[in-house]
Design brief:
heterodimer; A: about 350 residues; alpha+beta; six-stranded mixed sheet; six-stranded antiparallel β-barrel; about 35% strand; globular; B: about 120 residues; three-stranded antiparallel sheet; 9 strands
């Protein structure tokens, strides 16, 4: 068990390798109840979220979810989150490590008439992810649920909110369910799926699959010193929707162009470039690795690195620090792997 | 053959005359998680007790390996290059790492199984 934002989470249930492969080939079941969940209600809720977040919620509607960033006035990323537009308000799912800071930030910006409630401890959240997730869900009528759509339903006879979202690059579902009933849903999914190869999956498999899909991890790949354009998340910034916190700074950054960008690196087996490892090109330090691991699925180590903009092109060879020496790294296209998710890592790109 | 001996840095060793076989303990492999790569010395290299002789890379981190005794490397486990997961699945058998020819006396702070088990219980 490891400490993750104050929650005890398993790095693995059995083996990171087996769990990782299960997610890619069949499906894996993750407990992601550590993620912060806020309910935002009130007449002014939509306007409030529009004035605080970078993406444009008017592009979705009830029953749809949207990936968003929350930035400070300088355009630095405070968190990445998903907003669910429900019948009676909005659900905002944030990173565990940022929950308290996000809540304080949101409340300090909320106008009167907007209520923000922390529901993290009443609701559990589990994710069932993999190419066979739909087929093996103990629930009916999910075939027409769109990517980033969600709806109330019964999972194994328990009332839940089922969302077609995830953090693995695979098709699958995130299931919001009352904390005192989540055990039944968990057990039912495993009871149906185990014979097909479904495994419970821990943080190790979650990190490996999200990295293969090039999904950014807050605190590793981005923080408040990184702006959305540097993180390759400019597609979530809708400057045309009107003013929001950070919009003036982001408009300037977009005009002038970002100074750094995230690139994908592939190294030889054994050369795992870890967070913070220096990246060099033509005898010059150009940045550092933000996330790196060995991909059991691809068979080689992969890494994301934040480097001087346009310093590395796909196909070029850079140097990266591994165990105190310089290893050779090939610059590769992101994502490293495109799974069964119905849309790419960047949905509704424009 | 004498029983397995253990170090504070979680290597195990067996000693038969001058021939020493070294690996990492079951506790160590469980803490490391899935092993993906080992960097090991060439046969012939002389190691001093406590010297770092290689690295084990798991998905989580890179960890140094330390020589439990002074000796000359006579062999490394060739199977680990293709199957590093043997460290996880069979740490005391097919997952052995290194064979040494002992060049000095055995250190006095090596632990037997009971003492090692006790020392890991306080760390788990």
């Amino acid at each position: 068990m490891v400490d993750f934002g104050g929650w005890e989470l398993p790095q693995q249930y059995t083996s990171i390798r087996d769990e990782h492969i299960a997610v890619r080939k069949v499906a894996g079941l993750f407990d992601i109840s550590h993620m912060g969940r806020f309910k935002v209600t009130g007449e002014a809720g939509l306007g409030f979220l529009q004035s605080l977040l970078t993406n444009d919620l008017s592009r979705i509607g009830r029953g749809r979810a949207q990936y968003n960033l929350m930035c400070d006035e300088q355009g630095g990323i405070l968190d990445d989150l998903v907003v669910y537009w429900g019948d009676d308000g909005f659900f905002v799912v944030v990173n565990a490590s940022n929950r308290e800071r996000d809540l304080a930030w949101m409340r300090s910006h909320a106008p009167s008439g907007v209520d923000i409630e922390d529901r993290t401890f009443e609701l559990a959240l589990i994710a069932f992810q993999g190419p066979k997730a739909e087929e093996l869900m103990p629930a009916k009528g999910l075939a027409d649920l769109q990517y980033f759509g969600f709806r109330p339903g019964q999972v194994a006879g328990v009332t839940a909110l089922v969302s077609r979202t995830g953090y693995t690059g695979e098709d699958g579902f995130e299931i919001f369910v009352a904390a005192d009933r989540v055990g039944e849903v968990w057990d039912a999914i495993l009871a149906k799926g185990t014979a097909h190869g479904v495994l419970p999956a821990g943080l190790g498999a979650r990190d490996a699959t999200r990295l293969e899909a090039a999904l950014r991890l807050y605190g590793n790949d981005m923080d408040d010193t990184v702006n959305p354009y540097e993180a390759g998340l400019g597609w979530t910034v809708r400057l045309d929707k009107g003013d929001f916190v950070g919009s003036a700074a982001l408009a300037r950054i977009k005009r002038e162009g970002p100074k750094r960008n995230l690139v994908g690196l592939k190294t030889a087996p054994g050369d795992i470039a870890r967070h913070g490892a220096a990246v060099r090109f033509q005898d010059r330090s150009i940045g550092s690795v933000t996330s790196g691991t060995h991909s059991f699925f691809l068979g080689y180590p992969i890494a994301l690195a934040l480097v001087e903009v346009a310093s590395l092109r796909v196909g070029e060879t850079a140097g990266v620090e591994v165990r105190g020496r310089q290893a050779s790294a090939e610059v590769v296209q992101l994502p490293f792997y495109r799974g069964s998710a119905r849309s790419a890592a960047a949905p509704a790109k424009s | 053959m004498a029983g397995r001996l253990y170090t504070k840095s979680h290597e195990w060793l067996t000693v038969e005359g001058k021939n020493v076989t070294v690996g990492i303990t079951d506790f160590a492999q469980a803490q490391l998680g899935d092993v993906v790569f080992l960097e090991l010395p060439n046969p012939g290299r002389k190691l001093d007790v406590g010297e770092s002789f290689g690295v084990v890379e798991s998905v989580k981190a890179a960890s140094d390996l330390y020589a439990p005794v002074s000796g000359r490397v006579t062999a490394t486990n060739d199977q680990l290059a293709a199957k590093p997961e043997l460290i996880n699945s069979d740490p005391y058998g097919d997952g052995w790492i290194l064979k040494l020819e002992l060049t000095g006396a055995l250190p006095t702070d090596l632990m037997d199984e009971a003492a090692y088990k006790k020392s890991t219980e306080s760390q788990a």
